[in-house]
Amino acid sequence: MNSTDKLIADYRDRLSRAMADLPPARRAELLGDIDVHLAEATTHARDQASVLQVLDELGAPEGIAEAARAESGTRPRRGVDGALAYDVLAVLALLLGGFFVPLVGWIAGVVMVWNGPRWTTADRWIGTLAWPAALAPLVALLAGLSLAPQPDSGPVWVLLPVGLLSAALILVPTVHLLRVAARRRAADH
After folding, report:
1. What sign results for the dihedral spanned by CA atoms 137, 100, 88, 28?
2. pLDDT band (50, 70, 90) for residue 71
3. pTM for the whole structure
């Protein structure tokens, strides 16, 4: 991807995030119109300056989204003040929800992360797979111990590194999701 394509992709990503609270049909229609306009307007734009001028003339993605909300009578689901709270609550539900309401709590966290406007699809998959990945070493260890000929044949010290690996496999994605959301909230302002 060249630098002009990256500028357009970044603009479209910002627009998509800004319009996350619009009805799906309206969002798809508006994104389609913007894509057609960008394709036509940047056909002869060969350098970054030309593409930046086209994007500036189009306007800030947040402004376009706000105008679309006003036109359709849609109120934002999450205001600027609620953005941090939503992001933290979504990640906490993903991290801890399963402890409070087994399985259902984790599913609620997954749904919240997938509905959050600040994460990419890759980020959403990272969050979704964090708990299954964290549980895999523990399940493998327990399966190995249950298949051992004697219950005492496995050294107890193995539990510590496996536990630390499992903790890292859940905490690293959690920190990642919070950092990505913080960067995107800052970029949106």
Report:
1. positive
2. confident
3. 0.54
Q: CB-based contacts of 189: which residues, under 8 Å, 6+ apart?
A: 80
Distances in whole angstroms, Cα of residue 95 to Cα of each of 28, 72, 148: 32, 36, 32
In single-letter form, the type of residue at position 49 comes to: A
Give the Cα separation of 96 and 138 in Å (integer). Answer: 18
Mapped to the 3 state alphabet, what secondary structure does the chain carry?
Answer: CCHHHHHHHHHHHHHHHHCCCCCHHHHHHHHHHHHHHHHHHCCCCCCHHHHHHHHHHHCCHHHHHHHHHHHHCCCCCCCHHHHHHHHHHHHHHHHHHHHHCCCHHHHHHHHHHHHCCCCCHHHHHHHHHHHHHHHHHHHHHHHHHHHCCCCCCCCHHHHHHHHHHHHHHHHHHHHHHHHHHHHHHHHHC
Question: Among 94, 151, 84, which residue's Cα sits nearest to residue 117?
Answer: 84
User: Quick one: which of 95, 77, 75, 98 has its CA closest to 86?
Assistant: 77
Stretch 12-31: mean pLDDT: 84
Tokens of 39: 């394709």
Average pLDDT over residues 66-86: 71
Distance CA 165, CA 137 (A): 8
